[in-house]
Amino acid sequence: MKTLRLLSIALIVTILTGFAAYRYGVNRAVSSTSTSAPTPASAQPPERFPILPRVELARDYGYFIGDVIPLTLVIETTDDVVLDLVNLPHQGETHGLFEVRDLTMTSAPMGKGLIVYKANYRLQYFGPTPLTTPFEPLEILYALPEHRSAATGTYTYKSLFTQPVPINLARVGPRHQTGALAPEGPVEDERTGMIRTGFALGTLFLLAALGGCTWEWRKRRQRQRTVETSPATAAETTLQVLRHEGERFRPADVPVVPAAARLSQLIRHYVQEEYGALALMLTTTELQDLLRGKRCGPELFDILVRCDALKYQAPSAASAEEQQLWWEAMTLFEKLEQGTSR
Q1: Residue 72 and residue 109 share a domain
Q2: How many distinct helices (H) and strands (E) make up the chain?
């Protein structure tokens, strides 16, 4: 029980220390977040560029030779900006390694003077695979109201290019190359001391528990060896025989020697070993004087007398009485064995 208590204490200490360290780290993170400087509400949003293009692609992998690749160019602008999309690739043309199979243009007002233009492309690729290649930037021409010439009424356009979009061909998953992270040194953690202390205490209790288990095992082994090497007393030997041969009273067993005669023989053998008298050669009456004054002597003499009476009865009539007499003898020798061990 002491060993189990030590093991339980070691486990509880380790778990509580880990939980305390975890809660400490969470509280520090929350406090650092709450004490950080808030963003001023009066800060003005940054100036918006008059045209914001982006390229949308449902997925950049899983396309094979001849597959249709849907790609959408989205342009967000204001109603005072003039766009010229003449430099965009159109149906039947090629753009880089891709062939344009279809192109549809749409526009929709978004309110507050904003307009969204969409160019929906359907591309195809025919070439070696697997391959990761970018969809090259698209050129968009735009002009602001101040870029209009008062004399001719024409605009001076500026160019704006979209970002390239990588497309993985004949690959079942995205393929992005990631550079190796540069080591930044050890991470400082204030919970290190708490965690180490908890593990040290848990280890100490665990070692103490293991040592206690070893000590208890050695003591148990020593007690077993002492019991095995100590000589058995006459009462203990007789009790063992009575217990072993008491199995004869089971219904499936047939005794070889009548129980009354065998019980009388065992008691006489005990008296001979215990008191040094030739009990096997004496009559029951002669044993009365020998057992007088001895421990449990009258009880032993009474059992001998009853055994002699059962010897001359029929086996069917004496069976129940023999069994009862046998259990009384076992109880008596248990009493003798306990008194000897003390």
Answers
A1: yes
A2: 7, 10
